[in-house]
Design goal:
Blueprint (H helix, E strand, L loop, with lengths): L3 E6 L3 H12 L4 E7 L2 H11 L3 E5 L7 H10 L5 E6 L2 H13 L3 E5 L12 H12 L3 H15 L20 E7 L3 H4 L13 E7 L6 H11 L3 E4 L10 E4 L7 E4 L5 E4 L12 H12 L3 E5 L8 H9 L3 E5 L9 H7 L5 E3 L1 H11 L1
Parallel strand pairs: 1-2, 1-3, 3-4, 4-5, 6-7, 6-12, 7-9, 8-9, 12-13, 13-14
Antiparallel strand pairs: 10-11
Length: 355
């Protein structure tokens, strides 16, 4: 099998050396070049036609965002952004995702990080997933749909139904990972603010990115979007975004009110965990739970989707047609945990139909 031809773009000589060592240690990857800034990176991308690019964001001459736009417009190859782990870094990273970047990896120590060991496996896996056949088609297609819908995007209409549980509303438990920030922009902005459901969202990302992520969603949605904080009483028409490094759990008080808890346990591979969140939501809302599992690496949430479906709830898995990484939803489908399989742009409608 041919090795994945990889180009590294970073203005720091230390980072270029570190990233070179990371790429060269993986037998599935072949380093075909390094570039010192966006202009150099774009020139080498055009000449070398790599399978995937690791792209820094903050660079002189031409930054990574501008270089990304050219690469996407010319349909060269998927790009993984390598971002500083800061609030400003989060904002620019989300801009990159909306412009078509495959995903991002956060530098552990900020702009320049000599120790990338904590994210080596993440970077390698994302470079390989990005280079897979079909990724570029999905990325450009999703970016085009978001661009077309943004000026006129309006929440979908609700059908008038009476929800028969004591609370008078349902719960939507939504799990997503790789490719999630951009994919969610095809879903949440289409949900009306009067949605008779509370949404519990787990997006795998660094804890320092969550505030910027929640604010970005809030500015784009009719729904109220907030970070999930312990002790907060759950209300319909609100999306609760799980905090980084904490689980998102709900519990019902003797008074009947449902409150959020954000413990740092159980410790799981992903913190927060989609499985933990979905199981907690199912434990409170039972058959009035709607499980949604979208793009992501691995199987987090797949087992919980099966439990939701068996309990009489409704489950929606993103289809391979649009999934940036068809990992988490595929696992749910193969285990029999999906009532509906839907492309990302139709998930909002499926959620409304299930309420």
């Amino acid at each position: 099998m041919a090795r994945i031809r990889t180009l590294v773009v970073d203005d720091s000589a230390l980072m270029r050396r570190t990233l070179r060592q990371i790429v060269e240690q993986d037998p599935e990857l072949e380093l075909i070049g390094v570039a010192r800034d966006g202009i150099d990176g774009l020139t080498k991308a055009r000449e070398l036609r790599p399978d995937v690019i690791s792209m820094d964001i903050n660079m002189p001459q031409m930054d990574g965002i501008t270089a990304l736009q050219h690469i996407m417009a010319e349909n060269i190859c998927p790009v993984v952004m390598v971002s500083s782990l800061t609030q400003k870094g989060a904002v620019t990273t989300f801009e990159a995702m909306e412009l078509g970047a495959f995903d991002y990896v956060a530098k552990p120590d900020g702009t320049v990080s000599a120790d990338m060991s904590a994210v080596t496996n993440e970077l390698l896996s994302k470079l390989k997933f990005a280079a897979r056949r079909g990724s570029m088609h999905r990325l450009t297609g999703s970016a085009k749909r978001r661009k077309e819908r943004r000026p006129t995007a309006a929440p979908l209409a609700l059908s008038h139904r009476t929800i028969s549980n004591a609370l008078g509303y349902k719960a939507v438990a939504l799990g997503i990972s790789t490719g999630g920030p951009s994919t969610l922009m095809e879903v949440l902005p289409l949900l009306p603010k009067e949605l008779p459901a509370a949404i519990f969202l787990v997006q795998h990302m660094p804890a320092s990115f969550i505030t910027s992520f929640a604010n970005r969603l809030s500015n784009s949605c009719a729904l109220k979007v907030v970070e999930a904080e312990g002790g907060v009483i759950v209300e319909p028409g609100t999306c609760y975004v799980a905090q980084g490094d904490h689980q998102l759990i709900v519990m019902q008080k003797l008074s009947g009110e449902i409150v959020i808890r954000t413990p740092a346990y159980p410790e799981t591979l992903f913190m927060p965990s989609v499985d933990v969140m979905m199981n907690a939501v199912l434990g409170v809302y039972g058959q009035f739970t709607v499980g949604v599992l979208m793009t992501g690496i691995g199987a987090d949430g797949a087992d919980a989707m099966v439990k939701i479906k068996r309990a009489g709830g409704h489950t929606i898995a993103e289809s391979e047609e649009t999934a940036v990484v068809f990992g988490m939803p595929r696992e749910a489908i193969e285990r029999g945990g999906a009532c509906v399989v839907s492309p990302s742009y139709a998930v909002a409608q499926e959620i409304i139909k299930s309420i």
